[in-house]
Amino acid sequence: MGNTINAIIKKYNGDETRLMDILLDVQTELGFINDWTVEQISKSLDIPQVEILQTLSFYHFFHREPRGKYTIYLNDSVVSNFYGKEEIKKVFEEELGIKTGQVTPDGLIGLFETACIGMSDQEPAALINEHPFPSLTPDKVKNIVKLMKEKKSIEDIKGNKYGEGNNSHYLMRSLVNNNIREKGAVIFSDYTPGEAVKKIVKELSSTDVIEELKKSYLRGRGGAGFPTGLKWEIARKAKGDIKYIFCNADEGEPGTFKDRVILTELPKLVFEGMIIAGYAVGAKYGILYLRNEYRYMKNYLEHVLQEMREEGLLGSFINGKKGFDFDIRIQCGAGAYVCGEESALIESAEGKRGEPRDRPPFPVESGYLNKPTVVNNVETFCTAVKIILNGAEWYNKMGTKESKGTKVLSISGDCERPGIYELEWGFSVNDILKKAGAKTQDVLAVQVGGPSGNCISEKEFNRILAYEDLSTGGSLIIISKKRDLIKDVVLNFQHFFKEESCGSCVPCRTLTVIYEKIIKKIVDGKGTKSDIDNLLSWAAFMKNNRCGLGQTAANPTISTIKNFRQLYEEKVKGNIELFNPDFDENSAIKDYMEVVNKK
Amino acid sequence: MPNKKKIIATTSLAGCFGCHMSFLDIDERILDLIELVEFNKSPINDIKKFTKHCDIGIIEGGCCNDENVHVLKEFRKNCDILISLGECAIMGGLPALRNGIPLSECLEEAYLNGPTVKDANPRKIIPNDPDIPKILNKVYPCHEIVKIDYFLPGCPPRADLIWNALYALVVGNEMLIPYEVLKYD
Ligand SMILES: Cc1cc2nc3c(=O)[nH]c(=O)nc-3n(C[C@H](O)[C@H](O)[C@H](O)COP(=O)(O)O)c2cc1C
Ligand code: SF4
Ligand code: SF4
């Protein structure tokens, strides 16, 4: 075992900033990372054990006890629950004879839950040994358990009904489907890899590239909408001998899965965007930060990178141009939504806990290893390539006044056609409901932009998706009238934020707990009117948090109280204010009675 | 100036009486106070039972046993306004440090295994007389049991903060909260 660990550490040149990779590899080899292993790694890397423990304890896919030869992570997202996750969980528990959170006594199979794994278009889904198993049914679960008990290989358990497109590539062999429902003119239009690189080498200087992007008004697709040309320009001008380009493929916002599909079908487009960014900014290194839930794509993506090296698109002398050197590595995460925040992402890629940094300095000035770093979303890089190929003028013809081009939307929830839609900016929510096959009269609410976004009611279905109206990173969850909005959606989202808070800021780490608790209280019929008022007024404190997670963590509650207050009032109706209905004296003294009555 | 004196009650639940001590630190202003208010049930005058309905109830300490709960509920019934005074009432305070440990472990450590009791309790008894209060599974802040109208933070809250709050409530003015009275370092 010591040898295995040393070999892994050697593979990463004993570099402590690669601790994430080291831990991921060690866990893959040994199954878990216990105190002895931590000690070995600490000796080998010559760093204190606490530094390893800090990183290890931060990510929920790292574990210090065995979690079974087969480890099942059942998706606990809102949409997974809509599509019958509880039933699937029950079948797993019955077939395995254990509860969720346990491992079978023979150590063979462990059953756990996890936050949204980016499969909202094919729920309920689970990860088993990092392989996605979408669209689960009780029968499928029974079969999976049977094969696991027969100790079949994960490939045998998967079977051969692979998804369409590159999902069935021999290096991926995944059961995931793309569900691309509508292709638009930017991302999913015709594409020949390498053309944009060829074009810049021949025709455009690095400042030309930036000027073209600025003219296109391209804004980041990761949610915040920062102008991409400007970001690259600042990074270009920033002082530093070494600069980095990061592609943010953490895609942790529940209900979002567009980057999964783009990476599956258009990896070269993503990587070419990073190469162009490298050219524009003067960076020679790129890192794709891939969420652990998408680690099943890693071998395939490595293979694509290798192809691009062979095609002369990566490496030195790109397209024969002297000084145009660029290469990309893949950094996998280990399960933490906050790592999608760009400075947390950088911390994580440096092998540390994914805690957001104080800003300024911004990553463009001081990012990865304190060097100027550009972080962009997967879709942003793809769009940049198309703008370089077709020009800003072409791009500006699409969309609205402040939102140019198209947006790739992840649509899920209660509709007939969940999946990926690439639409010009400027569509109304109503248009989208129609496309997705959801009848407006059946729809109670639409969650726009994930839990950190906005939950809107029918009154706002005519609003337009655009930065100037309903801004979104691209996810829409359709919620029908048969759902209990507060129980099925709000409670789940508040639980999510509680679990995912990194814990640095007091309002974030305490109020996320309290929000979940009070929502649970209201769901249990024990809330009061002042609970509703409190939930609203506490939101002000959340604005003081360091990063976007904490700043938006009360949004599920706040936006639903604003738009669906009636639903809250029905749940608290008749409860008296003066004596908290949630406090039950008999259950509070139960433990004591048990202790004193023992003998 | 209100023509009828406001009636105040106070109690210490799972607290250390430090908050009450801080209350007494208003010093000579206590003379002004008794011009403005009348005390009912309170350790300050040793009135043990409510004898009339009160305007303001001041609670020190959270609830660690069922008796605390009963007293707190009685305060809620008998007072128009309830104030949580101090860290213990507001968040459970020091006593709530036990909240992360199962009650059985706490009791065993306190009565059976702790170094000072190990040999002193040969019959291994955890006190269980029906007359003594029953310990709750955890220490609760007051607002998790009844509605609390105002919270005065501090351990203990400064005398000036208590005075300003009471004065404002009694006279009906807006409360003065200068930086110093809410500053803790
Ligand atoms: C909690 C949190 C999670 C985030 N997750 C993602 C993500 O998964 N993908 C992403 O591209 N941006 C995410 N972001 C936004 C990034 O911080 C950053 O703004 C973005 O990657 C910049 O790229 P863009 O300009 O191309 O949008 C997240 C931000 C926060 C606060
Ligand atoms: S807001 Fe929350 S997630 Fe963000 S840094 Fe603070 S504690 Fe961490
Ligand atoms: S808040 Fe401080 S002073 Fe007041 S009862 Fe608690 S420990 Fe004592």
Can you offer a commentary on this structure?
- The complex is a heterodimer of chains A (599) and B (185).
- By secondary structure, chain A is an alpha/beta fold.
- Chain A has 5 domains: 2-58, no CATH class; 70-160, 3-Layer(aba) Sandwich (Glutaredoxin); 195-396, Rossmann fold, CATH 3.40.50.11540; 406-483, Roll (Ubiquitin-like (UB roll)), CATH 3.10.20.600; 486-572, Up-down Bundle (de novo design (two linked rop proteins)).
- Helices cover 43% and strands 13% of the residues of chain A.
- In chain A, the strands form 3 sheets. Chain A has a 6-stranded mixed β-sheet with strand order 6-12-11-15-13-14. A 5-stranded mixed β-sheet of chain A has the order 2-3-1-4-5, with helices on one face. A 4-stranded parallel β-sheet of chain A has the order 9-8-7-10, sandwiched between helices.
- In chain A, helix 1 crosses helix 3 and helix 20 runs antiparallel to helix 21.
- The longest helix of chain A has 18 residues, at 506-523.
- The model of chain A has no long low-confidence stretch (mean pLDDT 96).
- Chain B has a single domain, classed as Rossmann fold, CATH 3.40.50.700.
- Helix content of chain B is 31%, strand content 19%.
- Chain B is built from 6 helices and 7 strands.
- In chain B, the strands form 2 sheets. Chain B has a 5-stranded parallel β-sheet, sandwiched between helices. In chain B, strands 4-6 form a two-stranded antiparallel sheet.
- Chain B starts with 5 loop residues before the first strand and ends in a 14-residue tail after the last helix.
- The interface between A and B is medium-sized, with 20 and 22 residues.
- The complex binds flavin mononucleotide (FMN) and iron/sulfur cluster (2 copies).
- One iron/sulfur cluster (SF4) binds at residues 338, 356, 501-505, 508-509, 545-547, 549-550 of chain A.
